[in-house]
From TrEMBL:
Pfam families: AAA_lid_14 (PF25601), HTH_8 (PF02954), Response_reg (PF00072), Sigma54_activat (PF00158). It comes from Flavobacterium pectinovorum. This is DNA-binding transcriptional response regulator, NtrC family, contains REC, AAA-type ATPase, and a Fis-type DNA-binding domains. It comes from the Bacteria. Residues 142-371 form the Sigma-54 factor interaction domain. PANTHER family: TRANSCRIPTIONAL REGULATORY PROTEIN. GO terms for biological process: phosphorelay signal transduction system; regulation of DNA-templated transcription. PROSITE patterns: RESPONSE_REGULATORY (PS50110), SIGMA54_INTERACT_1 (PS00675), SIGMA54_INTERACT_2 (PS00676), SIGMA54_INTERACT_3 (PS00688), SIGMA54_INTERACT_4 (PS50045). GO terms for molecular function: ATP binding; sequence-specific DNA binding. InterPro entries: AAA+_ATPase, AAA_lid_NorR, CheY-like_superfamily, Homeodomain-like_sf, HTH_Fis, P-loop_NTPase, Sig_transdc_resp-reg_receiver, Sigma_54_int.
Amino acid sequence: MNLKKENVLIVDDNYDMLNLLQRHLKSFDYYTYKASSVNEALDVLKHNTIDLLITDLNIPDINGIELLKYAEEHYPLLPKLIITGLPSIENVVRAIKSGALDYLIKPFTAEELQKAIQNSSQKRKPIVENIHDKAENNYAGITGCSKKFKNLVEIIKRVENNKVSVLIEGESGTGKELIAKAIHFKGAFSNMPFISVNCSGIPENLIESELFGYVKGAFTGAGESRIGFFQAASGGTIFLDEIGTASLALQTRLLRVLQEKEITKVGSRTPEKLDVRIIAATNDDLFQMVQKGTFREDLYYRLNVINIKTEPLRERKEDIIHLLNNFIKKYSAELNKPGITINSKVTEILLRYSWPGNVRELENVIQNMIVMSDDTIELQHIPEHLKYHIPEQKGTLKSLKEYEKEQIIKVLAAVNNNKTKAAQILQIDRKTLNQKIM
């Protein structure tokens, strides 16, 4: 008997199988939710706290693998069990890779079902620990030993167990989403959904229906009501990346969410209560946007209850060696190149480089160099755009604009003034290159 009656979602297009599973689970003292399609299952997941997902792999509308992938992304702590009447090694491997902890082949007995559930429960603890480790290792994306890094970690620890709004500001590649995930998965609400939304990645005519949902008939093609990202994140965290791109109309609706703790679906006049933590992020200067009138002042202060600024890598160079070692360890293991070393001259060049793409760029460079090397990362393994790096001159202070211009001119000279090739080496487009040398 369970001390706590847990909720199990069972998904199968065969109603006889659904009823059989329900009877077995009831005898094990579980409460069940049934769904005969992936869309039904998604609605159940979004509206209820589910402790175990059992799904068939062969479902007509969308296959069970896609459901597993969705659940793994949005509910990573949820144990998942698959059942199938058409067993194949390939399908089972795909399911396990997509997040399933165990599998059953039809037909099966009540005892086999119970054993599979127990196996999933036993595996849940390591999975939970792994998720929390990942949240900590996400600091590896912004990891370090600098005072700035330690201050950042202290702020994260102070906010992870409450639902105050957080605004994360910083350049691209400095780990803003990793910080948001660390706050969520290390905190008291880690078993609830974490929904990430890139505000600039959704067309303006769709973003309100995506965020707030819509009712049937709200617009052409709205054949049924759907919840949006906010309700999908109910009880957990919604991460609004690139919040500075939000239109003034959307800003007004977001302000109401923060003020009233409720949303109204597109096409509806009925507000619905909402319990969700909002973490927003931007690489824009929102305060300056407020001064210009392009971002609402009241929304800015509602979002900015806790402010976290991610420092660019060029301002915490003492962290580069720490990051370098972590990424070498990570990718040498992933790429099956254990014991790989790095030439000290390569390290010197990496320390001199200004890293405009920040930690993300450093990680990509390390991964690239490990792929291209054998036992030791040598000078010839350095990507082209780093080879043309100009070392910093002692005793001279230059603006970033002057520094970039010198860098571009040196690369242009090396490629016989071929702007297309220079832009490729510098990883910028040709238009940006022209603007920077004007």
